Amino acid sequence: MGFRCGIVGLPNVGKSTIFNALTAAAIDAENYPFCTIEPNVGVVAVPDERLDILAGLVKTKNKVPTQMEFVDIAGLVKGASQGEGLGNQFLGHIRQVDAILHVVRCFEDDNIVHVDGSIDPIRDLEVISMELIMADLDTVAKRLKKASSQAKSGDKKFIAEAAFLEKIQEVLDDGQPARMAEPEDEAQELLLRELCLLTTKPVLYVANVSEDDLASGNPFVDRLREQATGEGASVVTIAGGIEQELSLLDAEEQQEFLTEMGMEEPGLNRLIHAGYDLLGLITYFTVGEKETKAWTITRGTSAPGAAGKIHSDFERGFIRAEVIAYEDYIDCGSEAGARDKGLMRSEGKEYIVKDGDCILFRFNV
Predict the structure, then answer these.
(1) What b/e sequence results for 285-315 when a residue is b if at least 16 CB atoms lie within 10 Å of its CB, and e otherwise?
(2) pLDDT at position 235, please?
């Protein structure tokens, strides 16, 4: 799996409510299991009706969804970059995730006191963002000091490295995330990856609203969307209270609740898919009577790389991939039907796997 999303936010914004709802995800447990790895980490199945349809078509005995890992990262308060609120420990947790889901409070409730006394999503957003930026500034300053010293030797590599670090530092000093300092060549891309900066990670803002504002939103959400647009980020609107109620219901009760609310699916499904899209992930399938399984890969992965997700031997001994597009598989009703109609293609090492591909790998080791 290896794809992790860290959930961050100030106290009393609904972060824990959303994470707790995820842990009891309103999805059929048999088809989309959730399992807790440690107290603040959980694995959530990515809902995908294509897997259900394929499994039903071939009457598979075992159906395995693709999954994402969510980490509930607590302790982020003003001063976290200086160690406040166990800041160093939890900033370290953020370094280990692939993307950040930033929960922002966009609801008013006199019974839930805001840590700063009032509701202001932009202020809240900036508190968290500035802590991440301050932590990154410290990382960049240390590396720049070293690179500047090495650049005195006249080595072009270290001169270029110092120049790019200065560019990153300027972006951070301006209050912008490091991802805004776009690398211009492979060396800069490598350096940026080595630095493992917190603000290079993609961010999805989660607007936590009241039940009444779920459909139409509110001025708080509008302000958050405007801010996110300027950063090139996205916003998903969730009513944490509703999601928590849904998570306590069985499948039949849940469907009745959704119908009454005029919702097609739980908001958490949208959140999971948004996180999946944020990371640039796609799904391919292996289909059979014994097992039908969804596999997660990054967009642009070649056939051998996709085969390696199953087992390293598949990639090492890759011969070819026999591919059927999902729509063709469904239209033909089976692998044999697709083969008879010439819709099963033989693809080589250069083939870039597409979302929904149903693949049979041929290999030899």
Answers:
(1) bbbbeeebbbbbbeeebbbbbbbbbeeeebb
(2) 93
